[in-house]
Structures are given as C-alpha cells and as structure tokens.
Fold this sequence. Notes:
Order of helices and strands of chain B: HEHEHEHHEHEHEEEHEEHEHEHH
Radius of gyration of chain A: 18 Å
CATH architecture of the largest domain in chain B: 3-Layer(aba) Sandwich
CATH superfamily of chain A: Thiamin diphosphate (ThDP)-binding fold, Pyr/PP domains
Structural class of chain A: alpha/beta
Helix content of chain A: 40-55%
Strand content of chain B: 15-25%
Oligomer: heterodimer
Radius of gyration of chain B: 19 Å
Distance between the termini of chain B: 40 Å
Number of domains of chain A: 1
CATH topology of the largest domain in chain B: Rossmann fold
Number of strands of chain A: 7
Mean pLDDT of chain A: 97
Distance between the termini of chain A: 26 Å
Shape of chain B: globular
Low-confidence stretches of chain A: none
Largest sheet of chain B: 7 strands, mixed
Number of helices of chain A: 10
Amino acid sequence: MEPGVQELRELEKCAAEVRLQIVQAMGPGKAHHFGGSLSAADLLVALYFYKMRHRAREPGWPERDRFVMSKGHGVPALYVCLARAGFFPTSELAGLKEFGSSLQGHPDMRKTIGLEANTGSLGMGLSVANGMALAARVTGLDYRVYALLGDGECQEGQVWEAAMTAAHYGLDNLTAIVDRNELQAMGRTEERMSLEPIVEKWRGFGWRTREIDGHSMSEICTALDDAARTRGAPSVIVAHTVKGKGVSFMEGRPGFHNAKLTDEQYRNAVAELEAGIASLGG
Amino acid sequence: MAGLKATRDGYGEALLQLGQEEPRVVVVDCDLFRSTRTAAFAEAFPDRFFEMGIAEQDMVSTAVGLALSGMIPFANSFAVFLTGRAFDQTRQQIALPAVNVKLAGSSAGITQGPDGATHQSVIDVALMRSLPNMTVIVPSDAEEARLATRAAAEWEGPVYLRLSRYETPVWRDGGSAFEIGKAEVRRAGRDVSLIACGVMLGRVLEAAEALAGERISAEVLNVHTVKPLDAEAVLSSCERTGAAVTVEEHSIIGGLGSAVAELLTEGAGKHIPLRRLGVADTFGESGLADELLAKHGLTAEDIAAQARELVGNRAG
C-alpha cells in the first residue's frame, strides 16, 4: 500500500507541475488566491493521483471517493488537478474566473465537472462531507469522503458543529485535512484569532489526529493511508504548510492571500517553478 | 371533517408513509423531533433519521451532502431558526446549485404563540421566496400538508415547506389532487378575490361566508404554493372580481401579499385595488395564537371588514 520511491518522485513532480499550472492559469495583472492554492497543491495531488478512486469519464460513479474543497478560495489548485485527471480539458484553465468560464472564482458544482459541492462561504464543507459519509451508511457503499479546510476557516463555528457530528456518528469513512499555513486574509492566524492548540482541539472533539509536513509527499500519503485504516472515529490530518509554497517571494507572506502579480513578478514566479520541475528531473 | 389538526401533523404522517415507500427519504432534525413531528419517522426508520443536535447550520449542510449522495433529505427545525440561522447555507449550497433538499420550517408564524417574538418566524417566506430555484409551499391544513410533503418528495429540487402548530379543522378532501404551483378556487365569487395561504384559509372561508350574507360575493383562492406563484389563476380571479385581499400570518413584506402585489402591478390588464393583511412590518410577541391573530387584524371579522370596505370603495 505504501507508495514506492518512484511513485513518490512522480507525485512530487506532478505537484511541481500543478504549482506552475496554477500560476499560469492565474497569470499577471488579475487578483487571485495564490497563497492558499499553492499551499494545498501537494495535498490535492496526493488525493487525486495517489489515494482517491475516481473516474473522469463517469464523474457521478456512485462508488467514487468524494472530495469537498471547503476552503473554496483555493479551488484553482483543484481545477488543475481535475483537468490533469481528465475531468475537463486543460485548455479550460486559461479561463479561470473569467466571464462565461466553467471555472468560477469559487466552486460551483453546476459549472465545473468533477466538483462535488458548492463552497466558498467558509465553514460549510465539512458538514457536506459528513452528509456524504452518512449517506454511504444508508446505501452500503464503501467510498471515502475527504474535506480540505483552511486553518483560518476553522474560526467558523460550523466547523466545530460538524466536528461534533462526525465524531458522534463515528464517521471513519471521513478524513478531514487542515491546510495549516498559519496565515489568513489579513495576517497571521494567531494574531487575528488564535487557533492553537489546534490538534488538541480536534482530539478533544473526538477525532483521531495526525500532524504532518504538508509538503512531504511521503508523509501525506502515509497519513492518508493510516486514516483510511482507522476504525470507529473520523480522522483529521493537520498539515503544516507554507502559504505561497514554491514561489519564494510569496512564501509566508499574507499579502499573497489574494493578490495581483506584476509582469515581472509573474515571470519570476514561472521561472522559479520551472526550475523546480527541472530539478526533479522534469 | 375529522377533529382539529395542525399542518405539522400532516407532515409527520406523510414522512412516515414516505419512509415505507421511498428508501431514499432521510430525515435530519435539531433536537426538536417531537415538535417537528419527525419522531414517528425516527422510531420507524432509525437508520435513516439523523439527530444533528442544536446546530441548524451543520444540519442544513449535512442535508446537502446527503442529497448529493442520492438521498432525499428532509431538514427540520422551527421555521425561524431553519430559515434565519441557516440562511447562508441554504443560499450557497441548496438554492444556488439547486440541490434536492427539502426544508421543513415548523411552528412558523405568529401562531407559534407563547414562545414569543424570538421563536415566531414572520419573514421566513420572504427569505425563501427571494432565493432562485426555491419552491415555497404553505399548506393550509393537515391533509394538504400531507399531500404537499409527498409532492415535495417527488419534486426534483429545493423545497421550503412552511408548517404550523396551529390546529384547525381539515377542509381538504382526503385523496384530492394536489399540484405544486397550482392555486385552487375554494369558493367561487364575483366581487372580490380573497387570496390566502396556510392556516389563514379557514378564517378566509368564514369571512367569505359572512360576506355572502351581505350579498358580497367573495372568491376564495388557496395559494398553497407561494413560489412559483400561479400567475394565471391569481390574475384571472382578480381581473374578474376587480379587487383583491391577501391574507397570511406572515409579514406583509416579502410574502404572499408582496408576491400578489408584484404580479398585479406588472401583469394585470387593469388597476386592481389590493389590501395585504398580515403582520405589518413588526415582530410578534408572547400570547395565544388566537390572541395574536386578533391583534394583527387576522380574524374572520377583520378579513370580512377589509373586503367590505374595498368593495364599498369601488362601488362609491
């Protein structure tokens, strides 16, 4: 079950390419959520190209694993993964957030093939994932459900309502992942509204917790495998990440939560991401 | 005519029937299963009933997840909490993507009674009616609620059912056809159209009877579906009678009265004077349902008086 060295390499290279495609889709001169898309790229690649069962040609396949992008503003990273997985042509990425595009600024499941729910108003995705996990019990299907939450998003009260529900029903077919990049729109989470001790909070709510480096493909894959083997309780993976990961001038900078790149910044970002791919043997 | 029953009772009976007939029907509730009348379903189908605790936002989004996985979820709470507290979840995740969730707002309106203004939803229809893709149904008695609930289960898309705890006789014939979006002429008349929804229908029928004694012929329209409004039926009645009175135990802003006013303003071929009876841009308070209805001018006598005045004005 554990991914081999070669598979990890492939996944790492895929994530590096995904980062480049995110930045290319966003381009210069337009406001985009760079930071939270880049911080989540490794997590999404592990989900879509290592862990989850899905069929691009049959998006409604009843036995597919479900993924809910609760941190809806990070959806460009998901769009890239869905395109790479074959849900829609990669050429559509160029229309990101544009008028008439299938790729809306926040997830609209009726416009984009492969999206499982509407999210973007924060705090709602985990509840939706719970509903999907409960439905699996009614229908007897053995799919798993995944939800990706932003760390700042955990300031929404509904997240903790949903955390109670998942634990109450012992939803062991559910894995939540918190993209712990420590930044939110207006600054550091611990300065805006403290989240720590965040792992203890989830544990206190009855979840099995794992804390990982959210940019280590081997740690991500292992944590996803461990979570899938857990019985009797839902699992949460608190993934420590860097907002803007892969573009050094964005890394750890709250200003790139939602930002416009100058032409020069854009060229530098693309060059750095291309060099990253090359260093992985791309 | 059986004994007194509330629309919530008809809803609970329908859920139980649906549970037997339709395995995709599931129920979520927020610690109110006695009040919302989902207790019988919970007992009969424990694997398809999910207690969500006192957490309306989580309940509504969970219902979305259930619906997106092929279930037909009915989400329950008091109307005031369901539509108010979980409005954003309903807007973003049910109405916008047109997800097949049924929202059952119980103990709606001022007939909620003694719990007071905090628990009386007087703008729930306004909130739900403003949402694209949302169907809004306000059943008038227990039998109609039963039929409406079954129709909602068959309807593909979001539905808001406004339910009351106020007990009334059952006027509707058991087994009569119910169609979402089709208003019903409950009494034919020539001089004025009395347009009602929900538990006000009984009082409106009484008012029409009283007016008949004064040689005023009132037509009574039961508009159980406030959205989509049956424009053809409402316009045809109002253009024939030339005057309209709407009656609802809801704010006159945003509910049935507003819907009819919007229609008559833009759609009618002539000017039709309209009076909107209901809660006049204020909140409720504690009291018995009948006391509160009287305070807000919603007795049969009040309704008849308004209609009489309107018809008299026109004659003059």
